[in-house]
Input
Amino acid sequence: MSAELDELYQSVILDHNRRPKNFREMEDATVKADGVNPLCGDQLTVWIKLDGDQLTDVSFRGQGCAISKASASMMTQIIKGKSRAEAEQLFGDVHALITGHPTGGDVGPLKALGGVSRFPLRVKCASLAWHAMKSALAARPGDSAAVSTEADGPGPEGA
Ligand code: ZN
Output
């Protein structure tokens, strides 16, 4: 991949970091999850509004590095309007991409995150919002989940 593409991808990340999309609390969310990445200091909350099987609204807030924020911002854009199954499929495709084993699934602008696979610490930054999204989807309506990149499995129950 050319250096030009790397630069383009970098500008996508910086742009989402400067002007994150769907960066707000959601009062009437169905589920939410807090995610932390202690190694970098990234902290964010993901809110999801569900209508049956569909993610009708997705938002996030938090603090962290450019990669964690850009990944969260792009995630809210791409999964909004999707079904649970589609969102989980995207989780799989994005996770595979950032860990260096791309599935070839269409992840849209999230391709910009492919470069992090060379930096294991950054993989946790890029995947944080996605783990939070998955935990939120596993929570019961009205519940709040929590996930840490330093915990095994999908996230501590009741922690
Ligand atoms: Zn980070």
Observations:
- The chain is about 40% helix and 20% strand.
- The longest helix spans residues 120-138.
- The two ends are 42 Å apart (CA to CA).
